[in-house]
């Protein structure tokens, strides 16, 4: 990691044992993605009325060169999260799954799903790092440079046939993954 690990405690006093467990878990993340630039971990205890003990919330922010991953493990009344170590374990297990998925996408090793659609590149704006896809139903779908798998954004040309996975955004439809 280029930036040192940051650990923050909220609602509980700092604990050397908890910090040591977090450092151990963070040291293993490099096995799943070799380009982690920074990692921030927040351990938060929420005091609940009519409940025994604290409920723990763990948030992990991982920064890679192209994406920031946010992993948040909230309690939702699960008794297991009365134990901070169980909450940490589950949060880091989720972080590993997200890093593995992200690494597969970066390598272009993503399975084909029924949610994939096909379309044609209609506009490319390399200076703005995005482009647009004409969907089969006539809609225009936005995509960003970072969502292109395989050979990458620079290999795309107008009128190229592509496959993509669509998701909704506040600004309209966008392709979360584009396969040239």
Word description of this protein:
This protein has 180 residues and is α+β, with helices and mostly antiparallel strands. The chain folds into two domains: 102 residues, Ribosome hibernation promotion factor-like (Double Stranded RNA Binding Domain, 2-Layer Sandwich), CATH 3.30.160.100; 64 residues, OB fold (Dihydrolipoamide Acetyltransferase, E2P), CATH 2.40.50.140. Helix content is 20%, strand content 37%. The chain is built from two helices and nine strands. The strands form two sheets. It has a five-stranded mixed barrel with strand order 5-6-7-9-8. A four-stranded mixed beta sheet has the order 1-2-3-4, covered by helices on one side. Strand 5 and strand 6 form a beta hairpin. Helix 1 packs parallel to helix 2. The longest helix has 24 residues. It is elongated, with a radius of gyration of 20 Å. The mean pLDDT is 84.
Q: Any key phrases for this structure?
A:
180 residues, alpha+beta, Double Stranded RNA Binding Domain, OB fold (Dihydrolipoamide Acetyltransferase, E2P), 2 domains, 5-stranded mixed barrel, 4-stranded mixed sheet, 20% helix
């Amino acid at each position: 990691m280029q930036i040192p690990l940051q650990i923050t405690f909220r609602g509980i006093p700092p604990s050397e044992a908890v910090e040591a467990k977090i450092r151990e878990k963070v040291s293993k993340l490099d096995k799943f993605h070799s380009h982690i630039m920074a990692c921030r971990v927040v351990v938060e205890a929420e005091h609940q009325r009519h409940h025994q003990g604290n409920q723990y919330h763990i948030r992990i922010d991982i920064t890679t060169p192209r994406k920031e991953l946010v992993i948040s493990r909230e309690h939702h009344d699960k008794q297991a999260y009365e134990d901070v170590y169980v909450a940490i374990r589950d949060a880091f297990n989720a972080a590993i799954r997200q890093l593995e998925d992200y690494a597969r996408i970066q390598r272009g090793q993503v399975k084909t799903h029924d949610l994939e659609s096909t379309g044609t590149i209609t506009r490319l704006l390399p200076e703005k790092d995005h482009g647009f896809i004409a969907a089969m139903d006539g809609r225009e779908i936005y995509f960003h440079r970072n969502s292109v798998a395989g050979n990458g954004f620079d290999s795309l040309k107008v009128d190229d046939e592509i496959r993509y996975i669509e998701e909704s955004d506040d600004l309209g439809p966008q392709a979360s993954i584009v396969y040239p």
